[in-house]
Structure to design on (276 residues):
């Protein structure tokens, strides 16, 4: 028996499978022929399939996925919206609180530095536009209160007791325009001047140590002031100054002294509160 190879063995992607074929030779010799089978399409078939793309390398071109569009479920359920919104809102709120805390610390530091300075005498002529630069700066005033034109800022409390902040026009002795002085908290039952101690209505020359204040923003929940009914819910410096015919300058009194009365009776309790 003779073995004839039609082609030599090949390795790689070609599989060789022997096929036994009888032959009609005179020597009664059994001839085994090896045929090859490829695991992949033949080069001829691939070249024909890729002929339209101008490729004759026998290898398939990369698949073009540029026009593929992924299928996305665009339906947002209320629960999905809530689950997505909660962490975003929490992060934003935390960031705002940190920034707010830093701002408040800087404000307290600036306030402490200004309060440590000696009070300055308020000049005769004051430009209201520069007041924000000197807010919380201690100043010294000498003059008299005009108790006939005082107003009350309503809805104030101290230690759980309802009352007002009493704002009184102050006439400086240096000949300057009258200004506004917030003398502090007064109880409701003392709104009538006749019910107050005589020291509250003193016409003596008074020395006031206080802090310059700028205009604060109005809260959304605060009602509007009513000049006609003399109802005041918010310290609008410009509006109050026009009503009382003074310069738009506000000083929060810290101490008030005179030759007759002590500071505890002339000026009421004025406390500084920083908004959070």
């Amino acid at each position: 028996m003779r073995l004839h190879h039609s082609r030599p063995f090949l390795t790689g992607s070609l599989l060789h499978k022997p096929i036994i074929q009888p032959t009609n030779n005179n020597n009664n010799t059994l001839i085994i022929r090896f045929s090859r089978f490829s695991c992949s399409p033949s080069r001829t078939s691939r070249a024909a399939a890729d002929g339209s793309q101008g490729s004759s390398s026998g290898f398939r071109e990369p698949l073009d996925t540029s026009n593929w569009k992924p299928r996305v479920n665009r339906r947002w359920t209320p629960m999905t919206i809530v689950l997505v919104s909660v962490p975003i809102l929490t992060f934003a709120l935390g960031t705002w609180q940190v920034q707010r805390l830093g701002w408040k610390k800087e404000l307290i530091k600036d306030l402490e530095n200004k309060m440590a300075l000696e009070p300055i005498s308020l000049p005769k002529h004051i430009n209201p536009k520069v007041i924000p630069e000197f807010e919380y700066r201690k100043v010294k005033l000498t003059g008299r209160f005009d108790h006939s034109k005082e107003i009350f800022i309503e809805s104030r409390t101290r230690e759980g007791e309802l009352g007002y902040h009493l704002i009184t026009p102050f006439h400086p002795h240096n000949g300057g325009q009258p200004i506004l002085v917030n003398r502090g908290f007064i109880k409701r039952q003392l709104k009538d001047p006749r019910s107050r101690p005589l020291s509250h209505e003193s016409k003596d020359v008074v020395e006031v140590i206080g802090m310059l204040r700028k205009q604060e923003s109005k809260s959304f929940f605060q009602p509007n002031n009513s000049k006609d009914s003399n109802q005041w819910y918010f310290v609008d410096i410009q509006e109050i100054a026009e009503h009382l015919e003074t310069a738009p300058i506000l000083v929060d009194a810290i101490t008030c002294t005179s030759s007759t009365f002590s500071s505890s009776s002339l000026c009421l309790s004025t406390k500084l509160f920083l908004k959070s």
In short: The helical segments are 43-49, 78-115, 237-244, 263-266.
